[in-house]
C-alpha cells in the first residue's frame, strides 16, 4: 500500500477552496489560518505531483484536473463522514450533529412548532438548519453539505430516498376591496392572470401553484415579483394582485393583521406533498425515518 496518501484534512482544504474560490474564506470555513490551508494544499500538490490550483493575486483558478480531483475528494470526504454516521446510527439514534436543509416556503411556518418538540423528544440531537431554495438544497445534499432536506414534492432532486410526511393544501389569496368581494370558491378560473403574483424562479411553490391550476398561460402572464410569501401577502393586502399560499402559512398566521381573504383552491391536484429526503444508500436512513415521524407529529 502506498504510504504517501493524501490526508482527509488536505482533501478538506481542497474542497473548501473549490467551494469558496478564495483562500481566506476557505480557511475560515475550515477553522484554520490562510497560511495553514495554503501550505496543506502545496503539500497535496507535491504529494500527487500535479498542479491543482493556479494562483494569482486576484484569481484562484482550478486546473481541469484539479476540478476533477476536487470532486473526487468531495466524495471521499462524504464517505468518511458516513463511516462515523454508521457508527452513530448503530448506537443511540438521533444524537450528535445533523445538518438539515429547509426550503423558504416551509421553514418559517413549520420550524417554530417543530423545534421545541424535537428538543424535548431528542435532547441529544444537535440540529443545524440551513434555509435554501429547492435546487440549492438538493445541490448541497449531493455535495455532502447537508444530511437531509425538508422540501415539497413533486421536485426532481436526483438520486435520493424520500419519506412523505403530509399534504399541504394550496389557498388563493384575494385582495381586499374587490368589486364583488372575494369569491366563495377559488378555482383556476377565478385567478386573473394579469394580477397573479408569484414567487421568483427557484422557489418550487411557484411550479406547484401553476401545476395545480393547470392553466399554461399563467406561467407566461404571471408577474413573478415576490421574494418571499410574506412579501407577496403584503402586496396582495395593498391591492396589487392575488397570489397562492400554502395551508401551513395560513395556519401559522401569515394573514394576521391584513385584510386578505384566502380560499382553498378547488382543483384536481390542489396541494403539495411535504417530504424529508436524503441521499440514497445513506447509513442514517433509519434515523431519518425517525426524524420524519417526529416532523409528522409536530406538524
From TrEMBL:
Q: Which PROSITE patterns match?
A: HTH_LYSR (PS50931)
Offer a single GO CC term for the protein: protein-DNA complex
Keyword Transcription regulation applies: yes
Q: Which UniProt keywords apply?
A: DNA-binding, Transcription, Transcription regulation
Q: Which Pfam families match?
A: HTH_1 (PF00126), LysR_substrate (PF03466)
SUPFAM superfamilies named in the record: Periplasmic binding protein-like II (SSF53850), Winged helix' DNA-binding domain (SSF46785)
Q: Which residues form the HTH lysR-type domain?
A: 6-63
* Single GO molecular function: DNA binding
What's the family?
Belongs to the LysR transcriptional regulatory family.
**PANTHER family reported for this sequence:** TRANSCRIPTIONAL DUAL REGULATOR HCAR-RELATED, TRANSCRIPTIONAL REGULATOR OF OXIDATIVE STRESS OXYR
According to UniProt, the name of this protein is LysR family transcriptional regulator
- Natural source organism: Allosphingosinicella humi
